[in-house]
Amino acid sequence: LAKVGDAPSCESEKLQQIKSLHDMVAFLGAIGRPALAVLFATIATSPTDNTVQPAGILPPLKPSVISKQKYDEMVGWMKSRGMLMDERISVEESALGDGCGLTVMSPLKEKDVVFVIPRSACITLANATADADIGPHLNKLTTTTAGKTMAMVGYLAKHYLLADQSPLHVYLSTLPWKRGINYQEHILFWNEKQVLGIFDGTPFLDDARQLHEQRNMCCDTLTPILETFNSAWSRPQIESAIAGACVILCSRGFHDGPDGEVKLIPVMGMLQHDFSPNLKHLKHPATLDTHDITVRNISAGEELVISYVHVADNWSAFQWFLVYGFIPGVFDSIEALVRNESSIL
């Protein structure tokens, strides 16, 4: 509660409401973090008078949280693929975000190497183009940067639709394929009417529409490929999987080379964002394996965090939402921020 009270992006009136809940800490601790998140969301969006708030354009977010067991299984799967992980790190419920994070159980020193993740354990464009079923079709798309991303989207969507028949299922089951999983929000889950309804008349509409058009292009190009591979998959199923894959690459992808390629590094997607990270990624110049190294001493009980962007890039609040589906330190929905013409945006 004290940390929330110090958050610069929260309005003072709402802070007073939050601080007045001090006596409820024991109760909240008993009922768990999801209830706390719902309470904060209620405080952040509830009116402070008796005025009737306009109906939302978006349906209410229905959160579901991925279990710790699934993350533990994914970590075990990654170890079987050659990942080295410091034994002092454990999957635990995140205190900084939704779902689980990676917590330090015994102290770490600065420059400790806590992960070594082989490139072969990552999901890359090479995996997509080498796919035995749809790889030749995806390879034809890779003449442009956008096409390379589209090939990755198709590969991920195919394996998601294969469910437990996919060798990637253990990893893919820890990702937010639908709106609300681990509280994930994203423009790419919305339909065109919702995008227009929220951003019409704002300076954000063009960027939102452009991102949406990229998703629609993925659907138009990839749906026939996936329908041909498995005619039992319906068009709505395929388009939903494509939208989920777009969100996952947008919010969890790592740059992979100078040509705009993107890769997924399982386990690293669990790391929460902090502008003062305690961990950094390094790519081995010869093997291209990922090495994660502590940048300071880390005490037992601390969570490992990275910065999702370079601080010098000075991203706007809307850029954050457009890419990651959230704005650091902000609890209000994007719809409420736009409707109230918030200075945050």
Characteristics:
14 helices; 345 residues; single chain; alpha+beta; 10 strands; four-stranded antiparallel beta sheet
Please describe what this structure looks like.
The protein is of the alpha+beta class and 345 residues long. Helices cover 41% and strands 10% of the residues. The chain has 14 helices and ten strands. It has helices at 2-5, 12-19, 25-31, 33-45, 68-80, 125-129, 135-139, 145-161, 169-172, 192-199, 205-229, 235-252, 317-324, 334-339; strands at residues 84-85, 89-93, 100-104, 113-117, 254-255, 262-263, 272-273, 279-283, 290-294, 305-306. The strands form four sheets. The protein has a four-stranded antiparallel sheet, with no helix packed on it. A two-stranded antiparallel sheet has the order 2-3. A hairpin with a 6-residue loop joins β2 and β3. It is globular and about 50 Å long. Mean pLDDT is 86; it is low at 1-53.
Topology readout:
Layout: H1 2-5, H2 12-19, H3 25-31, H4 33-45, H5 68-80, E1 84-85, E2 89-93, E3 100-104, E4 113-117, H6 125-129, H7 135-139, H8 145-161, H9 169-172, H10 192-199, H11 205-229, H12 235-252, E5 254-255, E6 262-263, E7 272-273, E8 279-283, E9 290-294, E10 305-306, H13 317-324, H14 334-339
Parallel strand pairs: 7-10
Antiparallel strand pairs: 1-4, 2-3, 4-9, 5-6, 8-9
